[in-house]
Design brief:
Radius of gyration: 22 Å
Strand order of the largest sheet: 1-9-8-5-4-2-3
Order of helices and strands: HHEHEHEHEHEEEEEHHHHEEEHHHHH
Shape: globular
Strand content: 5-15%
Helix content: 25-40%
Structural class: alpha/beta
Largest sheet: 7 strands, mixed
Bound molecules: pyridoxal-5'-phosphate
Length: 422
């Protein structure tokens, strides 16, 4: 094995990601030239220009009525919560197994995150756990389509409707993923996307918010956009008196919108290649002990922002996961762990300390003391502690079958030589 001085199995490497096309570059240059005569082309304050072009195409492609560009995916999530009037003392349910910002935005509204467990196969929000966590204080749920695999939307929407809570989809990793033939981000009250560095298409940085509800769209404008844009677009007379610069500066950089719009043309094609590479690797890995390829639920189209298999050391004489990972890395496989610690067990929640002075956890508006304990989310905890593996896969946007074969050969080699590692 390479870890013991042998030859590396993997000879190739995937292309670099993000990938900027010649068209992206031409589009940016063109926009800059245009800005000499048309200042909207480099100013985002009033909306219009490249922002409007991206928003129109994004909404049309996804099948949503309104799109609002933002300067990050987290900004989109944050103004979605604010538009739903989530505030002090409100509880928002979010899976314990996700990227921190899915929950961080709840704290930024001075509201209280309540963590739900995940489905052991898809690693997404378990609808039953969601229902168990609902109280009269629950205002919303943030559903994450983690790694690019859609969450179980039918069951989640049923629970949310039954209890009258808002549904916000965190689609930062799932741009282009489909559930029952429809793009994710169009099921809930809001869909929030990221085109930040490293996502499935990029603008450098940026995000997009989708909604089909005009009132929610206008409230989001008030929370995150410049008064010039609020004035230009608000139609609701009851909201107009609130036009002000008291919200966040969350508008997207117009050149980021130009790049994201240019990349959007390639979204389906690049995702299709990611899917083909990933499915091919899954076929190969399914025959190798110690590892189980990621699961794809029926009626779901995975877009493989991250290829995340599961580790079964039990099948490799109890080989610790860290040693397995190091042996694969030595063979040339890019592999690591990702979430590592479920959100409810992280320091800020264990110490119930975020803003100081007890907020939001012990805010006078909090209806009860929400606890964050080991054992609250056993599936998420087990996945972090024992099972999760992560190989990225955003860069698998071209045909990489030979590379997938080399990766699988490395898994095979490590499985065959476990004794050398023990
Ligand atoms: C990347 C990411 C975000 C945040 O997006 P930014 O554009 O980086 O702010 C939120 N949630 C998830 C699941 C993410 O992967």
């Amino acid at each position: 094995m390479a870890i013991n001085g042998g030859e590396r199995t993997v000879k190739d490497s995937p292309p670099k990601w993000p990938f900027v096309t010649d068209e992206d570059i031409e589009a940016v240059v063109k926009a800059l030239r245009k800005s000499r005569d048309d200042p909207r082309y480099l100013s985002a304050a009033g909306g219009g220009g490249p922002l409007e072009e991206l928003e129109r195409e994004f909404a049309r492609k996804m099948g949503a009525t309104y799109a609002l560009s933002t300067n990050s995916g987290a900004a989109a999530l944050h103004i979605a919560l604010a538009a739903c009037e989530v505030g002090p003392g409100d509880e928002v349910i979010v899976p314990a197994y996700t990227w921190g910002q899915s929950a961080g935005v709840i704290l930024h509204q001075n509201a209280i995150p309540v963590f739900a467990d995940i489905d052991p196969k898809t690693y997404n929000l378990d609808p039953q756990s969601l229902e168990e966590r609902i109280t009269e204080r629950t205002k919303a749920v943030i559903v994450v389509h983690l790694y690019g695999h859609p969450a179980d939307m039918d069951a989640i929407l049923d629970v949310a409707e039954k209890h009258g809570i808002f549904v916000i989809e965190d689609c930062a990793q799932a741009l282009g993923a489909k559930y029952k033939g429809r793009y994710v981000g169009t099921f809930g009250h809001f869909g929030c996307f990221s085109v930040g560095d490293g996502k499935n298409i990029i603008g450098g940085e940026g995000g997009v918010l989708l909604t089909n509800d005009r009132n929610l769209y206008e409230r989001a404008l008030l929370e995150g956009m410049h008064p010039a844009r609020q004035n230009a677009e608000l139609t609701d007379d009851s909201l107009k008196p609130y036009v002000d610069a008291l919200g966040h500066t969350y508008r997207m950089h117009p050149l980021a919108a130009v790049i994201a719009r240019s990349q959007l043309k390639h979204l389906d094609e690049w995702n299709e290649m990611r899917r083909r590479n990933a499915e091919y690797l899954s076929t190969l890995l399914s025959k190798i002990p110690g590892v189980e390829p990621p699961f794809v639920a029926p009626h779901c189209e995975h877009v493989y922002h991250q290829y995340s298999p599961s580790y079964f050391g039990e099948q490799l004489k109890g080989l610790p996961r860290e040693r397995f990972i190091r042996a694969l890395q030595a063979e040339g496989v890019p592999i690591w762990t990702y979430v590592n610690v479920p959100l409810h067990l992280r320091r800020r929640f264990q110490e119930r300390k975020f803003y100081g002075k007890g907020c939001p956890f012990d805010c006078p508006h909090a209806g009860r003391r929400v606890e964050y304990r080991e054992g609250d989310c056993p599936v998420a905890e087990e996945r972090c502690k024992k099972r999760e593996l992560n190989m990225g896969s955003t860069s698998w946007f071209v045909d990489l079958r030979p590379l997938m074969e080399q990766y699988a050969a490395a898994f095979q080699k490590v499985a065959e030589n476990v004794d050398e590692l023990l």
